[in-house]
UniProtKB/TrEMBL annotation:
InterPro entries: Allene_oxi_cyc_Dirigent, Dirigent
Database matches in Pfam families: Dirigent
Organism: Dillenia turbinata
Secretion signal span: 1-25
Gene3D superfamilies for the chain: Allene oxide cyclase-like (2.40.480.10)
Family (UniProt): Belongs to the plant dirigent protein family.
Protein name as it appears in the record: Dirigent protein
Keyword Secreted appears in the UniProt entry: yes
CC annotations in GO: apoplast
Keywords associated with the record: Apoplast, Secreted, Signal
Any single GO BP term: phenylpropanoid biosynthetic process
Cited function: Dirigent proteins impart stereoselectivity on the phenoxy radical-coupling reaction, yielding optically active lignans from two molecules of coniferyl alcohol in the biosynthesis of lignans, flavonolignans, and alkaloids and thus plays a central role in plant secondary metabolism.
Amino acid sequence: MANSTRPKFFLLFFTLLVLSTLLATDSIPQPFSTSLSPKQLGLKRQKLSHLHFYFHDTVSGREPTAILVAESPASNISKTLFGSVFMMDDPLTLQPDPNSTLVGYAQGIYASADQREIGFLMVLNFVFVEGKYNGSTLSLLGRNPIFDEVREMPIVGGSGRFRFANGYAQAKTHTFDLKNADAIVEYNVYVFHY
Ligand SMILES: *[C@@H]1O[C@H](CO)[C@@H](O)[C@H](O)[C@H]1NC(C)=O
Ligand SMILES: *[C@@H]1O[C@H](CO)[C@@H](O)[C@H](O)[C@H]1NC(C)=O
Ligand SMILES: *[C@@H]1O[C@H](CO)[C@@H](O)[C@H](O)[C@H]1NC(C)=O
C-alpha cells in the first residue's frame, strides 16, 4: 500500500512546487514585458540558409577598405601586431573577382588579440545589398587566426530577414598578397533564421 501511494504523493508535491514557482514569478507585474507566441510575431518556420561570398580586404593603395585606427606603442614591435585595431568596410562579392556582383559589405573591426600567432578578434556586421536580403544584416563575433586553413566564427544575431539568426561562418583565404597584405577570403555562412 505505502509503496503505491508514495510515487503519487511525490508527483503531486512536485507539481504543486512547479506551479507555485511559475505562479509566483508570473504574478509579479511587468509593465514593460508580455509573453508572446511566435505566431503573434509572424514567425512561422525556422529555416537553415547557406550563404557563400568573397570578402575583399584592401589595406594598400589610395582607397583602402580597411584602415588602422588604433595601436599601442608596442604593437609595431610585436610579431603579431598585438593591440592593432583596424576598421573595415570590405565589399562582399559573388565571385573572387572584385568586379563580380556586389552582395554586401563587412562593416566592423578586426583587432590583433593574440601574442603568439596572428589571431584577430572579429566584430562585424555583414550588411547585404542584394536581392531579398537587401537591408538585412548578420552579426559575427569570433576569433580569426588568419593563417589557419579554415577559421570558424559564430554568427550571433541578425536583422531584417535574419531576425533571430544564429549559426557560424567559415572563412578560407582565397588569395593573400604578401607584399601589401591585401586579402580575398571565401566565406561560407550557415544560419538558422525565420
Ligand atoms: C612604432 O610606433 C610609434 C608610434 O606609434 C613610433 O613612434 C615608432 O617609431 C614605431 N616604431 C617602429 C619600429 O616602427
Ligand atoms: C575592375 O574594373 C576596373 C574598372 O571598372 C578595372 O580598372 C579593374 O582592373 C578591374 N579589376 C579586375 C580584377 O578585373
Ligand atoms: C536595396 O535597397 C535600397 C534601399 O531600399 C535601394 O535603394 C536599392 O536599390 C536596393 N538594391 C537592390 C539591388 O535591390
